[in-house]
Design brief:
mainly alpha; Four Helix Bundle (Hemerythrin (Met), subunit A); two-stranded antiparallel sheet; 2 strands; 68% helix; elongated
């Protein structure tokens, strides 16, 4: 049950809630769509971004035997039992967030408005703080194995 709650909360917050907040601050009416070329560019970012996040969650569940929703030391779902170093975690220590960021950039392209950048910036700041706390926890849980992984794989995509 806790896994299901974590997945639902993650989806509601990151795939629906933050983009809806970005839409709201943009002042765009609902529904609204930019010119077709911008829609295509936005979808080219949004679909792979969401797919990367979903792949990361599925990989975490299967390989790590846990759930990602551990926010600011409040465990909503069971922690991962195994350090994941392959699949999406082979090129990014945080592929789930990388996917969300790509998805959100697609939303920004769709909205074509500067105001949602404020929401995106706040999201990046808050999630960066969460990532740092998560990295400390992973060092405690997995020790030298995590420290070696941390040296070889970038936090997001670029070292």
């Amino acid at each position: 049950m806790r896994n299901t709650i974590g997945y639902i909360l993650g989806f509601l917050i990151f795939a629906i809630g933050i983009p809806a907040l970005m839409w709201w601050v943009s002042g765009r009416p609902f529904p609204w769509a930019p010119a077709l070329a911008w829609v295509i560019i936005a979808l080219i970012m949004m679909i792979p971004g969401l797919a990367l996040s979903i792949w990361s969650i599925v990989h975490m569940k299967k390989v790590g035997e846990g759930n990602p929703f551990d926010a600011y030391n409040y465990e909503i779902a069971p922690r991962t039992k195994h350090l994941m170093k392959n699949g999406p975690y082979g090129f990014s220590r945080n592929p789930m967030l990388l996917g969300i960021y790509i998805y959100d950039i697609g939303v920004l392209v769709w909205l074509q408005n500067w105001w949602p950048l404020i929401i995106f910036a706040i999201e990046i700041i808050l999630l960066s703080l969460q990532v740092r706390a998560e990295e400390r926890r992973l060092e405690t849980d997995f020790g030298d194995e995590y420290r070696a992984y941390k040296l070889s794989v970038p936090r997001y995509l670029i070292k």
